[in-house]
């Protein structure tokens, strides 16, 4: 049994009142001389025992009356629907574990308060209750998924659950939790959501309300808001290199964006840049950041070795430390090897279809080409072998009629492991092969090709007005250097299809369905039809052009924008490989690897200094023929290093990013809380406040107040009758 | 052959006008004019024939040879020949002895309980005060009729005693004795009655004025002893209304007047049983008295003493049929 007003139980001490009154009555004595003592003695002798019993009975009843009244005032709650039963309840705790819960008020963090509130709820539960604990952020993380009666396990979980740097979006995780707990038809209990009440988490408020209303019949919910006020907060909202191509051969400039999420100006904000978890190697100062504004500084760093690196930008710690540093992982390349496969078989260099493209990839004098960070190897289509792929980061196929089956398979592996592929059609291109094999069977191509042939006097141009794709996104405007200046005389129409396919496509390889991503238009013609398309394939990426790489069908290679566009395309493909290295906190890290890594043991450690160092071990597993490294539960932001026990050791680094929007300090306004209150009990809790009583109020149980009042009433009547009867009988 | 006794017409007892004594004097305090006037009008009549040393208006139970012829009886050997009625012998030749009904005064005894229990009084009048008045009234009536009076105040024994007197002037001293008496002991009324009964030499009337707080059997035994000694016994049982009704509330510590005992209790809790005990006691005393033809009058001190006495005297007149 629990009590809503437990303090009023002290009222039970009022039972001392009748006892004291009884004693006082005995001490408040009237004295009299008396002659007829003999009658008194006889009366007393005859009735003394009976009188004592009656007095004790009356005293007992009076004490019981006071106890009943005290109990009634204390508002006892007997859990469960069954009055006489000791039925327990099943409580489900959903604890907001987003990084905004790390916000400190100088004494404790919101997460600390959540832990305390969780324990207060556990304390308030009737004996025999069961508790499940879920951590929610932008996903649902079951800490104790099956309700347990082991309260020490629950308390331990509440005290020790790992904080995450994920953002909040309560709607989805809440729905998942409700689906999970209501999947058991007989399940009934209480749902508690402990959150700081950050507005961001309730951006889908309607869905949250609907979910709570759905669950209300079996799991009436209590929203416990732990956030208090808004703390001043600066956060590193963005960190990126200025170029997609990170090379060890030149310094890399990193842009760091710092946002002031607070309500006061921030002055002289120091920004530091560090590599691979080391000490800062560069710093910058931002003189002023207005409230709600962002400022970006750039800092250079040179990556000494090719391979994986982490870059960390940080600012001095404030009340929310989680967003005071941001880490990205990048792969530095000593060189980017591009394999050019030319199908034109022209004898003259300038007649080859990749003549312009080759020059554009290495726009330096011949003497310096060997030092340039893009190295080119060109082969004829007939000489194209799988061995060539081992040395290449990106393969460019131009005007190749068709490829052998083994080469197609090798290309598929190459793409799956992160390689890049650029395809330019040409006069020799066998569209039937491309469409049947590369599109229908392997789904490498983002679109089928259709050669309508040249139509006299028909010229196409790129639609450069507002391209959305990252590659052409920076090439806007209508000046001479814009994409719109290029003229396309002949083209292969790109015909994408629905992906994944709605209809059964018997030619499609099963693994292709898994590897291929949806086709995306990079750039359209002015008539709206796609001119360049791309799609992800495994960890790699395929970019398909709709015209030739040379000037046979267009004059694009002659345009000034050709070179930067090409470099940006190469950078985009390379960066796509880096994208795999940067995950959102809370997501698993997955990396497809070559089969030689299968069964290798991977040890994962956090690079950044932490209160509790992260260390996990896993194994590279073969999944559907693909060696894959998967590291789940990367909840905290920062850099991580994976060491594979190969000979020699293989080092891979990746980074988990936090969502900068979570840094916004705005809490849910009262109006929206009122909306929530229609479907849930809303409690704004401060540490030290009695959460237990508020929980008990909402608990599905029997409040025994009226019963105790009734009992007190019955006892009062009994006392009156008995007192009168005893008095009359004496 | 029995002769009808000659009746003498008696005038009602008319007590002379009582002294209008000063209220401060013991006599004045005890003999209230209103009480005495009523008592005087009714007179005091002994229900029984009493034997008295003085000739008076009261018939002696002893038929002797004094003043008034009562009846004849056959002569038996040994009779005094002086009482032979020779006239009858002359007419009838029968030897008859004349017997006379002797009118005589009686011995009146007034026994007042002077134990400590008589000190109790819930109001202004204690039982002792009440008893003093009764004792004084009857003393006055007795001596005014020229009857002899013996007054005794007792507790465990006779504490103050006024020797036999028929002098009305003795009333002053009697009253003074009544007023001056201060209770000091507890009651042993049974012993006292036995002792007093043993001292009685002639029939008479004994007034016992007491709360009778003693063992009822012992009391009744003493009363029976008095009656056995041919005394008309009249018991004035003096009780305070609080002793009868027990109307206390709250917590009361009762300290015994005669016993060194204190009882602290809540009277309401035992009121009923107390009242039952009192009624049982009164019933026992009353039945015991009736059994031996002892007059029993329960006096509630809440009731004016004059009314009690008048009622008693009226009843007595109704029973005897004469003054």
From TrEMBL, chain A:
Question: Any idea where the VWFA domain is?
Answer: 90-289
Q: Transmembrane region positions?
A: 6-24, 56-78, 704-723
**SUPFAM superfamilies annotated for this entry?**
Class I glutamine amidotransferase-like (SSF52317), vWA-like (SSF53300)
Q: Which CDD domains match?
A: vWFA
Q: Which UniProt keywords apply?
A: Membrane, Transmembrane, Transmembrane helix
Q: Which InterPro entries match?
A: Aerotolerance_reg_N, CARDB, Class_I_gatase-like, Double_TM_dom, Ig-like_fold, VWF_A, vWFA_dom_sf
Pfam families according to UniProt: BatA, CARDB, VWA_2
Entry's Gene3D superfamilies? 3.40.50.880, Immunoglobulins (2.60.40.10), von Willebrand factor, type A domain (3.40.50.410)
**PANTHER family attached here?**
BLL2463 PROTEIN
Please report the name of this protein according to its UniProt entry.
VWFA domain-containing protein
The species this protein belongs to is: Cerasicoccus arenae
From TrEMBL, chain B:
What protein name does the entry list?
DUF58 domain-containing protein
Q: Where is the DUF58 domain?
A: 72-279
Which Gene3D superfamilies does the record associate with it? von Willebrand factor, type A domain
Transmembrane annotation, as ranges: none
Q: Where is this region: Disordered?
A: 1-31
Q: Where is the composition biased (Basic residues)?
A: 1-12
- Basic and acidic residues bias: where? 16-30
Q: Which organism is it from?
A: Cerasicoccus arenae
Check the record and name the InterPro entries matching this protein. Answer: DUF58 (IPR002881), vWFA_dom_sf (IPR036465)
């Amino acid at each position: 049994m629990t009590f809503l007003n437990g303090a009023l139980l002290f009222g039970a001490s009022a039972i001392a009142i009748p006892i004291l009154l009884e004693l006082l009555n005995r001490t408040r004595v009237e004295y009299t001389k008396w002659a007829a003592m003999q009658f008194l003695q006889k009366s007393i002798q005859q009735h003394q025992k009976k009188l004592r019993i009656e007095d004790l009975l009356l005293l007992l009843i009076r004490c019981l009356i006071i106890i009943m009244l005290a109990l009634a005032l204390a508002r006892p709650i007997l859990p469960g629907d069954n009055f006489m039963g000791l039925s327990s309840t099943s409580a489900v705790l959903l604890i907001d574990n987003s990084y905004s819960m790390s916000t400190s008020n100088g004494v404790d963090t919101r997460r600390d308060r959540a832990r305390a509130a969780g324990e207060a709820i556990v304390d308030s539960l009737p004996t025999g209750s069961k508790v499940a604990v879920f951590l929610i952020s932008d996903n649902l993380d079951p800490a104790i998924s099956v309700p347990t009666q082991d309260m020490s396990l629950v308390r331990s979980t509440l005290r020790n659950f790992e904080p995450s740097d994920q953002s909040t979006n309560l709607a989805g995780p809440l729905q998942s939790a409700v689906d999970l707990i209501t999947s058991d038809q007989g399940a009934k209990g209480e749902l508690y959501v402990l959150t700081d009440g950050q507005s961001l988490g309730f951006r889908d408020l309607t869905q949250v309300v609907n979910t709570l209303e759905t669950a209300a019949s079996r799991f009436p919910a209590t929203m416990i808001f732990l956030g208090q006020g808004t703390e001043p907060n600066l956060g590193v909202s963005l960190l990126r290199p200025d170029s997609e191509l990170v090379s060890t051969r030149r310094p890399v400039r990193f842009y760091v964006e710092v946002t002031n999420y607070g309500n006061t100006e921030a002055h002289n904000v120091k920004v530091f840049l560090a590599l691979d978890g080391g000490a800062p190697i560069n710093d910058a100062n931002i003189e002023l950041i207005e409230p709600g504004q962002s400022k970006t500084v750039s800092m250079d760093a040179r990556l000494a070795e090719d391979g994986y690196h982490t870059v960390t930008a940080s600012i001095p710690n404030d009340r929310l430390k989680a967003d005071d540093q941001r880490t990205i992982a990048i792969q530095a390349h000593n060189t980017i090897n591009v394999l050019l496969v030319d199908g034109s078989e022209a004898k003259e260099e300038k007649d080859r279809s990749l003549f312009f493209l080759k020059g554009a990839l290495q726009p330096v004098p011949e003497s310096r080409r060997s030092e340039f960070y893009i190295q080119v190897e060109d082969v004829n289509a007939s000489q194209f072998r799988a061995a060539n792929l081992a040395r290449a980061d990106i393969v460019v196929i131009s005007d190749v009629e068709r490829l052998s089956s083994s080469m197609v398979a090798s290309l598929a592996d190459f793409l799956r492991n992160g390689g890049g592929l650029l395809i330019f059609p040409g006069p020799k291109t066998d569209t039937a092969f491309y469409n049947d094999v590369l599109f229908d069977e392997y789904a490498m191509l983002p679109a089928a090709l259709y050669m309508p042939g040249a139509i006299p006097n028909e010229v196409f141009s790129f639609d450069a007005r507002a391209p959305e794709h990252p590659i052409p996104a920076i090439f806007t405007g209508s000046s001479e250097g814009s994409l719109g200046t290029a003229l396309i005389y002949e083209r292969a129409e790109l015909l994408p299809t629905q992906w994944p396919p709605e209809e059964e496509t018997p030619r499609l390889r099963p693994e292709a369905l898994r590897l291929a991503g949806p086709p995306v238009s990079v750039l359209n013609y002015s008539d709206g039809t796609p001119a360049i398309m791309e799609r992800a394939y495994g960890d790699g990426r395929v970019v398909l052009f709709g015209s030739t790489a040379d000037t046979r069908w267009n004059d694009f290679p002659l345009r000034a924008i050709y070179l930067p566009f090409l470099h940006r395309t190469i950078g985009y493909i390379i960066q796509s490989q880096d994208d795999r290295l940067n995950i959102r906190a809370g997501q698993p890290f997955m990396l497809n690897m070559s089969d030689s890594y299968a069964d290798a043991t991977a040890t994962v450690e956090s690079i950044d200094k932490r209160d509790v160092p992260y260390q996990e071990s896993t194994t590279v597993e073969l999944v559907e023929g693909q060696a894959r490294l998967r590291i789940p539960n990367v909840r905290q932001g920062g850099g991580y290093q994976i060491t594979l026990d190969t000979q020699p050791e293989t080092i891979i680094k990746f980074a988990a990013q936090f969502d900068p929007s979570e840094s916004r300090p705005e809490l849910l306004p009262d109006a929206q809380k009122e909306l929530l209150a229609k479907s849930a009990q809303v409690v704004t809790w401060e540490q030290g406040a009695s959460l237990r009583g508020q929980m008990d109020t909402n608990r599905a149980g029997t409040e025994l107040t009226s019963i105790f009042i009734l009992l007190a009433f019955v006892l009062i009547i009994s006392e009156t009758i008995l007192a009168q009867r005893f008095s009359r009988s004496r | 052959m029995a002769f009808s006794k000659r009746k003498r017409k008696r005038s009602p007892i008319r007590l002379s006008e009582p002294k209008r004594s000063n209220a401060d004097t013991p006599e004045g305090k005890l003999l209230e004019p209103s009480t005495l006037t009523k008592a005087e009008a009714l007179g005091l009549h002994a229900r029984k024939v009493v034997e008295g040393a003085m000739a008076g208006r009261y018939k002696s139970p002893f038929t002797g040879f004094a003043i008034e012829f009562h009846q004849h009886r056959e002569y038996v050997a040994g009779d005094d020949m002086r009482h032979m009625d020779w006239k009858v012998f002359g007419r009838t030749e029968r030897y008859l002895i004349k017997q006379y009904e002797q009118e005589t005064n009686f011995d009146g005894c007034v026994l007042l309980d002077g134990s400590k229990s008589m000190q109790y009084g819930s109001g202004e009048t204690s039982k002792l005060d009440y008893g003093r008045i009764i004792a004084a009234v009857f003393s006055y009536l007795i001596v005014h009729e020229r009857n002899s009076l013996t007054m005794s105040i007792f507790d465990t024994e006779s504490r103050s005693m006024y020797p036999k007197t028929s002098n009305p002037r003795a009333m002053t001293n009697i009253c003074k004795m009544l007023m001056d008496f201060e209770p000091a002991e507890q009651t042993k009324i049974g012993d006292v009655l036995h002792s007093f009964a043993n001292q009685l030499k002639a029939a008479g009337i004994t007034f016992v004025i007491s709360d009778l707080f003693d063992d009822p059997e012992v009391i009744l035994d003493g009363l029976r002893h008095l009656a056995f000694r041919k005394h008309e016994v009249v018991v004035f049982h003096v009780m305070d209304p609080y002793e009868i009704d027990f109307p206390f509330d709250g917590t009361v510590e009762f300290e015994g007047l005669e016993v060194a005992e204190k009882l602290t209790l809540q009277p309401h809790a035992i009121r009923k049983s107390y009242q039952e005990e009192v009624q049982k006691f009164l019933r026992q005393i009353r039945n015991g008295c009736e059994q031996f033809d002892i007059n029993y009058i329960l006096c509630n001190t809440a009731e004016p003493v004059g009314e009690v006495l008048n009622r008693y005297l009226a009843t007595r007149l109704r029973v005897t049929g004469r003054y």
